[in-house]
Design a protein that fits this description.
By secondary structure, the chain is mainly β. It has three helices and 35 strands. The N and C termini lie far apart (87 Å). The N terminus and C terminus are likely disordered. The structure holds 2-acetamido-2-deoxy-beta-D-glucopyranose (2 copies). One 2-acetamido-2-deoxy-beta-D-glucopyranose binds next to loops.
């Protein structure tokens, strides 16, 4: 036997001994670790640390602590018992875990640390220390904690000189996320980019920029090595009409396009209008004599309170439709399970009363409840049509006397105005209650998310003659659409609050 063969034999004996479970003769402990581990805020994570070659750690001393601070234990195990951790924030959260599914645990030298409910403060370095009466060893594991925030929320405000102020915000991130603006894959540089940290350490980001004409701008927010969340805003501004003036069909179409450009523009103006009005109103507070009962709108929620002074109890026209049932102000689809999922077409549109040809009028529509969920497909708005086109395939638009806000399951992140071109309004979530504010005299129609007290969007419309509330519960949603009725107040009070009948839970 050569010397080399002898060494091989010796090694084999040690290995076999260790595999068969007999205690191998090892002079000291050698600790192995995984250098970095990533975890999401709130998750459970295991920081791997084990003895190499494997030996039982049951009778050893094992200690986990932050950084190099031996005296702030997170997990302390000695003489086969656990001691209370010195770091109180880890009490009840730290225990031994398994480095992988095949691990035999403490018996085979796996001394990994398992942490439940990972917090942002857990981010950092951890030391795994193992000691026997023959010696000790330690290793360091870095824990990098991340939190994924909300989908970005974008808003659009029209400024002078063809400029649009686009803003984008997102919160709930750790560490600070990166925010990127782009248009057709080209990066845009923001005018402002601000970060804020809340009390729990989560970061929010807010950015805005000014753009002139654009088709689609995207704002994406994400961690450098994680996936990003994105929101887009699209404006479909039509081409300028042909200069040539004639009575041909072609120029007619050009004129329509021009009118629609105006609508798109004014939708944005509408949003600004409220902000402007708010500024104006607060600075001229004393001089206002105009309407005693109306509140001075300072912001969106006060503009909504002002709208509330013009509450109308709208009733629904009775229609004979095989697709709808109408009862007590509730509109529902007769087929709850629609084969292709929720859908909204002209077939289920209904007019309300009274009609309006002057003044300010406000009404609210409930679009779901906790029990049946939120409706996915609906229209809410006004129409000047005397007869509704109950036909599939008709697309009612501002050019034929329909102005409404619509929701469809195909576009989860936005609501739409049925203008031509369509305007997509980014929303965080579908509203549960929509308030419709018609100012006939100034030819404005505004939609509010009543629960958030936020303006969804406004549009200018060239109403003529009488316009009627328009509703459409669509088909295939479980939740009904309900026109909310209020008990009439004697006079409007200072708060603009009214007694309101709460929407009844729909009988299933
Ligand atoms: C972890 O978080 C859950 C949910 O917040 C909580 O119910 C549980 O008690 C927490 N566990 C520990 C050990 O803190
Ligand atoms: C753009 O909008 C943001 C709010 O989202 C505002 O803080 C900023 O001042 C606006 N910029 C301009 C130039 O109006």
């Amino acid at each position: 036997m050569t010397g080399l063969q002898l060494i091989h034999m010796c090694l084999a004996t040690v290995l076999c001994a260790s595999l068969s479970g007999a205690a191998p003769v090892i002079d000291s402990v050698v600790v192995m670790v995984k250098n970095t581990v990533r975890a999401h805020h709130g998750q459970t994570v295991t920081l791997p640390c084990w003895l190499q070659p494997p030996q039982s750690a049951e009778a050893l001393e094992v200690r986990w602590y932050r950084n190099d601070d031996f005296d702030t234990s997170i997990l302390s195990y000695r003489a086969k018992t656990f001691e209370t951790p010195q770091e109180t924030s880890y009490v009840g959260r730290a225990s031994f875990g398994l480095k992988d599914a095949a691990s035999g645990g403490l018996k085979e030298g796996d001394v990994s640390l398992k942490l439940v409910n990972v917090t942002l403060q857990d981010d950092g370095a951890y030391t795994c220390y193992v000691s026997s009466d023959k010696g000790y060893d330690k290793g360091k594991v870095g824990l990098s904690v991340t939190a994924t925030g909300t989908s970005p929320f974008m808003s659009v405000v029209w400024k002078q000189n063809d400029l649009v102020n686009l803003s984008c915000e997102s919160d709930g991130w750790y560490p600070r996320p990166q925010l990127r603006w782009s248009e057709q894959k080209q990066n845009l540089s923001p005018k402002s980019l601000e970060y804020r940290e809340d009390s729990s350490g989560l970061a929010s980001v807010h950015s805005w920029l000014l753009v002139s004409r654009f088709s689609e701008v995207s704002c994406s927010v994400g961690l450098s090595d994680g996936e990003a969340k994105e929101a887009r805003v699209r404006l479909e501004i039509p081409v300028q009409p042909a200069k040539q003036e004639s009575h041909s069909l072609g120029s007619g179409a050009g004129w329509v396009a021009f009118a629609l450009l105006l609508i798109t523009t004014l939708v944005l103006l509408g949003v600004l209008y409220f902000k402007r009005k708010a500024l104006f109103a607060s600075s001229k507070k004393e001089e206002s004599t105009e309407e005693n009962c109306s509140l001075l709108p300072k912001n969106e929620s006060e503009a909504l309170a002002e709208a509330n002074n013009h509450y109308e109890n709208v009733t629904l026209d009775q229609v004979k439709s095989e697709y709808l049932t109408i009862k007590d102000g509730k509109l529902r689809d007769t087929i709850v399970q629609f084969p292709d999922g929720p859908k909204v077409t002209c077939l289920t549109a209904v007019r309300g009363r009274p009609g309006f040809s002057s003044g300010k009028h406000y009404w609210e529509v409930s679009l779901g409840n906790a029990k049946l969920g939120l409706k996915q497909s609906w229209w809410v708005g006004v129409t000047s049509a005397t007869v509704l086109p109950w036909e599939n395939g008709v697309s009612p638009s501002s050019s034929n006397g329909f102005w409404f806000l619509s929701s469809s399951p195909a576009r989860a992140e936005s609501l739409q105005f049925n203008t031509e071109p369509e305007v997509l309004l980014p929303v965080r979530s579908r509203p549960q209650t929509v308030g419709v504010y018609l100012n006939y005299d100034s030819r404005e129609l505004s939609f509010y998310n009543v629960d958030d007290k936020k303006l969804i969007g406004s549009l200018k419309a060239d109403f003529s003659g009488e316009v009627f509330p328009l509703f459409n519960p669509g088909r295939g949603d479980k939740a009904p659409m309900e026109i909310l009725q209020r008990t009439a107040p004697d006079e409007c009070d200072d708060t603009g609050n009214y007694a309101q009948s709460t929407p009844q839970e729909a009988e299933s």
